[in-house]
Every structure is written in C-alpha cells, then in structure tokens.
Amino acid sequence: MKREDSGFLNEEEKKTIKQEIRWKSFQELLGVRDNKFFKASSWLWRNTFARLGEDWVFLALLGIIMALLSYVMDKGISMCTNSRVWLYRDLTNHPVAQYLAWVSLPVCLILFSAGFVHLVAPQSIGSGIPEMKTILRGVALKEYLTFKTLVAKVIGLTATLGSGMPLGKEGPFVHIASIVSQLLSKIITSFQSIYENESRNTEMLAAACAVGVGACFAAPVGGVLFSIEVTTTYFAVRNYWRGFFAAVCGATVFRLLAVWFQKADTVTALFATNFTADFPFDPQELFVFALIGLVSGLGGALYVWVHRKYVLFMRSNKRMNKFLQKNRFLYPGIVSLIVATLSFPLGFGQFIAGELSTHEQVHQLFSNFTWSKNELTVEQAAIVSNWRTAGTNVFINLIVYLLFTFFFSIVASTIPVPSGIFIPVFKIGAAFGRLVGEAMHLWFPYGVRYGGKLAPIIPGGYSVVGAAAFSGAVTHTVSVGVIVFEMTGQITHIVPVMIASLVSNAVAALLQPSMYDSIILIKKLPYLPDLLPSGSGMYNIYVEDFMVRNVKFIWKGISYQKLKEILKANKGLRSLPIVDSPESPVLLGSVQRYELIKMIDKHIGREKRLEVAAKWMKEAEEKAREEQERLRREAEELQKTRRPSRFEVSPAPDILKLRERANNEMLPPQAKKETSTGFSPVFGTQPKKSILKKTNSFTLKGFTPLSPHSPTHTPYTTITGGTESRIRSAFDIIFRKSATLQDVTPDPEVGSIGTPSISGTEGIPLTPGISKKVQLPRERVIDMSAEDQKAWELEEMGKPIDVENLHIDPAPFQLVERTSILKVHSLFSMVGINHAYVTNVGKLVGVVALKELRQAIENVNSGTLTPESVKQKQEEEAKALAQKEAENGDRLTFLVVAKS
C-alpha cells in the first residue's frame, strides 16, 4: 500500500510525501551525504562561519542578498523608465506616434507581469505584508515562501514598477526578504540542523521583514521599527538585534553599491534634503503641523475605506465580472491603458508631472525652495516647470496630482500583479504637505515673527511632515517618521513629524483599520483580530461559550484500523489529542497527523510487507531443508538395516523414462522446456532423487533471477509434499519465477524486467544484440500474493498501535472552561499557537482553534456575543434537551403499552 494512494491523506500531505520521496531518492542517487563536496562544505562551515555564530552569518547573508536584489531591481526599473522617456522624446515628433510610444511600453509590461505571475506563482500577487502578518501569527500559507514565488515576485515587481503605475515596492520587498530567509534556512539546514526548529524560522522571518524595508529605503532603524509595528502583535525582544544587524547590512551594502556602480560621491540619503538647521520652523507653525496630521488622519481613513469599497464593488458587480472574466488580461490592460493615457505629457500628464519618475517626483516635492515666488534660478525654474503650465499654477497642479494619485493608486492596486501601497500614499502626503507649505508662504511671504526674529517658511519641510503623516495614517505606524529622517538625511523636523504622525494615527485608528488589516479582512485570511477596548463584555465571555465539544481523539489501545478511519474522516486536522481511554479521556498529549500516517505506513507499508514475505519464504526453505535432511537420514538408516542381496536389480530404460516424464508433468510449461533442454538455472547441476514423502503446503510468489523475461501473468506456486525431485523442482519454480516482479528502482527508459518479450523463445534466455540494451536488476524482491497480502493487512490492522514508539507532545497548550476570551486572545497572539485543548480535572472536554477564537472575537466586537446571549443560548439548549428526553420517554411508554 503506497502512502500517497491511501484514502486518509489530503492533497497537501500527498504532495509533501511525494516531495520527500523524490528528494530522498535524489540524495541516494547522488550520494549527497557521502560525497566529498558535501563533506568538504560541512567541514568548512563548521570550522569557519559556524564558529563565528550561525545567526550572524545567516543575517549578514540575508542583508547582502536583499541589497543585491534591491539594486538590480532598481536598475531594471530605471532602464524601463528611461526607455519609455526615450521612446517619447527621441523616437518621433508626431503627437500620435509619441502617444503610442508612451502608452505601448507600460501596457506591455503590465500584461507581461500579469501573465508571468499567474503562470509561475499566483501567490506573488499583491503586497505581501498582510500574508506575512498571517504567517508570523502561526498560520501556514500554501506555497507562499517558495523559490518560484520569489522568481515571480522579483520579475513581476520589476515589470510593474517599470511601467510607471502609481504603485510601490515596500510591501513586496518584505515578502521577498521573507522568502530569501526561508530558502536560506532550508539550505543551511543541510549543514546545521538548528534551523529546522520552527521557532527559529519564525525569528528569522521577523528579521527578514525588517531587512525588506531597510533594503528598500536604505533605512535600517525605521525598517526594524516599521516591521515590528506592522507584522507583529507581540514582539520578542531577543529578535531585536537580529532585525537591526540584518537591516544595517542590507542598507549599507545597498548604498555602497550606488557608490561603486553609479559613481556616487559618498553614501548619501535616498531623498537628501538641505533644510536650514539653525531655524527650520517657528513654534507657531506647530499648530499647522498638527492640523496637517488631523487632515492626514481623515484622508488616510478615507483612503482605506475607498479601497475596500472599490474592491467589494468589483467583486459584487456581476455584469462587470462577466465581462472581465472573458480574459484575464482585460482588466490589467484596460487599467494600464487608462493610467498611461492620463499621464501622457502632452495631454493630462502636464498637470500631474507625468514625465517624471516616482523618485524624481518625491525629490522635487522635498526641494528646499518656494515654488510660488517670482525670482527663480535656472535649476529651480526647471523643477517648477514640471508643476505648472501656461494656464495653471502650482496649487492647481498639486491638487490635481493629489487627486489623481489618490484614486488611481487604489485602482492600480487591484491589478493582479506584485505591488505595494506605501510609495503612493507617501507621494500623496508629500503633495498635500507641499500644498500647505506653499499656501503658508503665500499667506506669510516674509515668514512668521517670533521673539523678534523673522524666519522664512520652508515648504519642503511641510512636504516631509505631510508624507510621514499620511503614510502613517494609512499603515497605522509612527515609525514612518524615522523612515523619513533616514530617507532625507535630516532630523531638523523631528518634532513636527512626530506630532503630525501621532495625531494622524489617533484619528485614523478611530475611523478605520490599517490598510493591511483591511486587506486581511477582504481576503479573509485566518488572522486573529484585536479585541476592541469598548467591548467590556469580553471579560465575561469564557472558553466554554465558544469551544468545540465534539473532539476527535485517539487512545492508547486503539487499533490501526480505527486510527485509519479517524484520520480518513478528519482530513483537516493537523494533530490529534491522545487520551488514556474513551471511558476516561484523561489528556496525555497530542500527536501530529503526519506522525500517525508514518506509523501506519511503517506497520503495513511495502517495506514491512516485503520483510514479512522474505521471512515467510526463509521459514519455508528451512522447513523444506529439514524435511529433506530427515528423509535422507531415514533413507540411510533403511539402507543400513536392509539385508544385502546377492543380485543387483536395475530398472528397465522405459521405466526410467516414464518416471522422468511423470516428474516433468509436475512442472509448469517453462520448467518443462528448461528441463528438456538440459538448462537448470539453480539446481541444474545436481542429480535428482525420488523420495516420496509428504510435507506441508505453502503459497509463495516465485521468481527467476537469471531469466531475462517472463510472462505477464504471475502464477502462485504451491510447495507440496512428494519426492525429493518434487521439492527440488518446486524450489526451482520459486527461484525461477521472481522475474515477474519489478525492480526496486527500475529504469523508466528501459522498463521493468517483468515486461513480456515480443520475440524469442520463452524458456531460453535471449542473447542481447548490438542495438538492444539490457539492464541488469539491482535488487530482487519477494512479495506476497494478493490473497496473502489482504489477509496479512487485515490481521495487522486489527492490532493495537505502538504508543511507545510514537512521537507524542506531552505538554500541548491547555485551557480550562472558565478561561476568559481576553486571556485566550493574549495566549494565541503571544505564543503563536493555532489550537489549544480544554480540560476539566485533566479530562478532555473541548478544543479551541484559531477559527473558533476568531469568530468569537468578531462576535464580541460586533456585540452579538454577550453574557446575556450566552445565557439565553444555554437556556434554549437545556429546553431542547428536556423536550427531547420527554419525547423519548413518551415513545418508550407508547412502546411498552403497545407491547402489553
């Protein structure tokens, strides 16, 4: 019985087992563990990097790899953007041709990205942070951290951002870093088994989230803080240094690559600013900064709400879905065409700085001069020319740019391609801050007077504050302020940035969840929501109010057959509790489903069956040999006791022929042919005796190691009592017929040895010719017949399981019935477990999984699960139970009366 063909395996387990078998056979084929290269690599690892510390080397590799990926992707994005501008500017001067050149490349890149990620790994679509929050929460998402997902994410994100869509790369970089961390863990596992630990992998994933942000913006400190705020509910302090070390390695190498390959002067910030450090802002301006935070909080909540409503509208509109589902390229093609058309520089794009890349837009919004003043230098005039036209000024263009980015970043984020949302909201906040700064300079052209000093307004500082406030409101993070300081290289506006970020966070948190939590709700990911502080009833809701009482469990004396039925009926359970007995269900521990499947396979699997078959055959050989020896001894004793005769009697030749013919009739046709030709593969050189004695019969599947082919139908030969010649011929048949069994490791190109031959005599071995390849078997197996196998499996499945050799978790997480939902939520969030058992005086009474807890928290937050509703439900259940008992009693009384 093959494990992958058994009925109690789900699809994911079948795939895992097939991968394990494939990898095991690959290792055995190449001798991975025994070859010189592996031994040399292991020795080098143990004596160099392992002595320095596995974590340090692992985190440094993670940071360096992410820096290289970030730099290569930025170069690819820059090449796509420059190609688009070159096609527009230098290829032709005709407006229609310029429009086609401007639109064609983005549409092609988006269509390529959508098709590529759909074929390679659909898990790479979207941001990645919501799924990473779910994974760090303890929920395994299928094929989300695989190599093919990494390839699809990197190539798809490069094409998406190269198209010029209003999308970002911060969220996808967190996902990419997590995949790299997971793959590194699997590689290092070959040298150091410590990385097989699940908790260690989780710690490395937490560090990888920080590396993703750090390598994206060259902001290691802000990246660590941002990853803590976004991805974790409870953060282990022991992971703090890991995140900082890996993020610093990634950010440093990322900036050094710019110095080495882009001929930069030194390591500089991503959007370097040069605000006045002596007097960057006036104390009266703090009120304006707080107002920016208030408006940004409202705008951030509106952004999240509009995004969710748009996604739900696109899902629920049947007519539009019917049209878009005709081809998967329709929606991305239409959206990319609309966005590219609106950003065409000779059309609507002149109002939104459509000719500039994202990096150039942010850099100009942070510029340290006033756009609305009349006297400008040549460089300043070139910058302002992108933000005003002959019929509009900078205020109108900034408003149009803000609205365009607001709505079309929401629309573009629904395209099925890898994309982030941080950079678009960052640009929206920067544009809003620049708008307020330019308005402040218009109202106070000479600055705000305070303490006898007159300091000019710096609109670029307002832009920095607005970018931090709006992006913080959408993501519900304060660490964006630290990211802004690292991106600009200045901390002159630290107080305004922190004030605006705190105010915007407070306002947005009261109105809407964060963008990542909103996506979790939209995708219905199994993530545990937070309990609202206003729900005071959560202190009176206990485990017994929402736990599952019908628990599937196993016990000590359970049979293999019963265990198989339980596994087959509950394919969704990853582990099962084990109790003392069904009558006294005292919880002893829990067992992983995979361990139980391996135990059943070990008990009745192919290896065990072949071992038993070989044992049976060996016993049959021993019995036959003992019987032969006994008969020989009896014959010798008979010769000794017989009186010698004076005459020698020899049988006539015809009698010898008749006896030989009678013996041959006991053999199958093939054995007859071999006997007639004088060819005996096993016992042909020994003389045959004729001693007629009875022996026990036994059924075995025969085999012929020396025969190159055999018939397709495999007979089962019975060893019966008789003469010595019959015993020898029977064993001759046994050893001759084994060629009908396949090799243990057959060659797929040559086929099985048991394949019937097209040409040649059936009994004579064929001589291989020049053009014919002959594969010699590595190993021959003895197997049972179908009837024996069925009877043996039935007998073995009725035996009790071997609990002693089972890997049991003796201390699974346990709760009592009166544990409040608040404590359960804290336990699940802090430890990252996905289920816990409920006991009463040690006895198993229920189980709480992530699904039940999540539903209970949502009901508590919505007000549907209250102590009153629980009490009413209990009364209804008691009333229904009493009514059922009364009906059963009435039915029993009726039967008694009817019988009497």
Brief summary of the model shown:
The protein has 900 residues and is mainly alpha-helical. The chain is 58% helix and 5% strand.
What general form does the structure show?
A: elongated
Percent in helix:
55-70%
Work out the helix count.
32
Largest sheet: 3 strands, mixed
Cα separation of the termini = 56 Å
Q: What share of the residues does DSSP label as strand, in percent?
A: under 5%
Number of strands: 10
Secondary structure elements and their pairing?
Blueprint: H1 11-30, H2 36-47, H3 49-52, H4 54-89, H5 95-120, H6 129-136, H7 147-162, H8 170-189, H9 198-217, H10 220-231, H11 240-261, H12 285-316, H13 318-324, H14 330-342, H15 358-365, H16 378-384, H17 394-412, H18 422-443, E1 448-450, E2 453-455, H19 459-475, H20 480-488, H21 494-511, H22 515-523, E3 554-555, H23 560-569, E4 575-579, E5 587-592, H24 593-604, H25 606-641, H26 653-665, H27 669-676, E6 698-701, E7 716-719, H28 724-736, H29 786-797, E8 814-816, H30 821-831, E9 835-840, E10 843-849, H31 850-862, H32 867-899
Parallel strand pairs: 3-4, 8-9
Antiparallel strand pairs: 1-2, 4-5, 6-7, 9-10
Helix pairs in contact: 4-5, 4-7, 4-8, 4-9, 4-11, 5-7, 5-14, 6-22, 7-8, 8-9, 9-10, 9-11, 10-11, 10-20, 12-17, 12-19, 12-21, 12-22, 15-18, 17-18, 18-19, 19-20, 19-21, 23-24, 24-25, 30-31
